[in-house]
Amino acid sequence: MDTYRQGQPTQQTTIKPRLLDLVRGVLRRKHYSIRTEQSYVDWIKRFILFHGKRHPAQMDKAEVIAFPTHLAVRRGVAASTQNQALSAILFLYRDVLELDPGWIEGFERPKRPARLPVVLTPAETHAVLAQLEGTKWLMASLLYGAGLRLMECLRLRVKDVDFGYGQIVVRDGKGAKDRVTMLPAAVIEPLKAHLAKVRTLHQRDLEAGYGEVYLPYALERKYPRAAREWAWQYAFPSRKLSADPRSGAIRRHHLDEDVLQRAVKEAARNADVRKPVSCHCFRHGFATHLLENGYD
After folding, report:
1. Which one of 32, 150, 160, 291 is CB 3.0 to 4.6 Å from 36, fit for a cystine?
2. DSSP three-state, residue 72
3. Which domains are delineated in the chain?
4. Tens digits of per-residue pLDDT, 7-18?
């Protein structure tokens, strides 16, 4: 298209977006999480730098393989890390550059070694929980009593806690699936008290001109007021307001996962539990202890 300036036609300049911006755009269009976006962009950046800033479209299979091989041989990273890097690279070729040289589908991935999960006994579980208090105890109790994954707990919204039916609706869990799980009786009253405090915090945010929360999948455009409504707020919000990494909007995000991870490890040490305890141990314990008690 021509544009006119001072009576003279000039050719409109088309500026091509940078490659990493294209990557971000495709990831967001396909509704990948912000964590996946950050991880993929980081791996693709490393991949390009590894090859001296050459454009990926100019590389062949041997050059693509060289990067994960370097990670395994020179850096000694785990198979899961190699797979993550490889997923990012294949996403770049297949979904962003829309190139399929023929070898992408048959790309052999590193095999992850089979590991037995760490399962705590009921006594060990209660000993660790006894070392926690407040919000950290409440979150850990939900991991164990409701079988939640760490991020499922942190992303829990007020509207998805159903005290009447004694259940929790997990939205967009692993595999982008929803599911319903039990709300442990032991946490009902503490959770109600916690949410009352969170509601007071939300009201203060609203009075200060904030109070918005991140909404997934363009729901913010479909329901413009929902981001400020109490029902959509995170059950476990951060203490501080922060800028959304995508939009720049000032919001109150959920707690960072490191908060509970560090607390659980410290609680395990204080309880003298001599196993490599992580937050996921509570979920394993939830399933194992149900089976041991005759549930299936």
Report:
1. 32
2. helix
3. 19-96 (1.10.150.130), 122-292 (1.10.443.10)
4. 443 444 444 569
